[in-house]
Please model this.
Amino acid sequence: MLPLLSRLADLLINRRRTVLLAWAGFVLMAIIVGSGTVDRLETEATGDTSVESAIATEQLEALGQGSPDLIAVIDNLTPTTQQEIQTHVARITALPNVAYVAHPFDETNPQPLLRSTDGQAAMVAVVLQPGLDDHSYDATVETIAEDLRSIDPDNVLVGGQAVFEAENVEQTEKDLQKAELLSLPVVLLLAVFIFGGLLAASMPLLVAVVAIPGSLLILRLLTMFTDIHVFALNAATMLGLGLAVDYSLLVVNRFREERSAGQSVDEAVRRTVTTAGVTVAFSGLTVAVALSGFLVLSGNVFPSIGYGSMGVVLLAMFSSLTLLPAMLSAFGHRIKPAAPNRGTGFRRVAESVQRRPLVVLLSVTAFLLLLAAPFLDVRLQIPGAESLPSALESRQLFDVSETRFAIGADNPITVVINGATPAEAQALSNEVSTLPDVVGVQMRTTFGATQI
Model:
């Protein structure tokens, strides 16, 4: 690897202007191409399609009886409001892309569980036809949401999978922007404190700034070949940002040490690439290989995180090995060399560890086990509307459904019976209704499959 890094260092020193222009072009392209990345990310998490629940869900969606795309909760019911609900539901049911609408006032197929336990609120659930293209789906959702809100604007909450997906994407973008606005100034202040100069401190920050649009570009390219979940956005961006800063600090610090030893700028760059560069390359490749374990997991969430994170790790590594040395070669003469006595504190720590390695090993192991102890009681789940801020409508609907409706905010347990007679389905329904903690069972027959 050393000969390769040595040749790379010579190239960066001799062609530093070309390298810097190439990276500037890359950032510009990343901003342009990556600007629409978020709209192409998946918001619905999928798991192992071979498990029983996934098979049942697939059958229901094929029959137009899947999970509701839109849910509305209408509070403070009055006889007039009930009539309004029936009128609006009839209009929504007649729309061409609607497969099914459930509400508690349906005379032919009443859904009593869609009325709140206090009787003051009603829930309307709308399922759209499967296989709609994005434009038709979004247009239908917007039309139905507007119709439902007009029932009683002051007492209607509209949510469901479609609204949650839109609000989740919007909130992800806001959180990412907030994280960048908070983290980048903190990184700059810490780097100024560490290096004692604004120019040296700004270089890790510039590499980190490259990592942000670079992450979006990588995810955008990945969406051309596979489904990428929105969770990969924050994971990849923050990982890329952190590693870019980490690797850059290592490179700049080594450069300043070489300058302190009396090396010229070009020779300091060359020595930095062939020494610290080995560490950066080894770390980047090791992290990328470790993240590849995500790719063998089922569903679309963890593989998405794996693909995106591997890409940005390699980007952080490559930019630290090329962009940063080129900047050091161009502007390194303005950077202060490291102080001669710098690092004495870390030297003392290292010497102390060498004197008592067993004590340090046992102490650190005990401390790590203590930190890991709470993980024994961890409960892992894919976050839904409950993870959104309370100001968003999807979260408010979730809270109301959870506290005031017997079925709760989550979908009820659905049983699909294929090929059963109505009598057999009714018998099973009666049996399920007698189980402990079951508040009610509803059954409907459609397209040859019975759902309870």
Summary: Confidence is low (pLDDT under 50) at residues 447-452. The chain is about 60% helix and 5% strand.
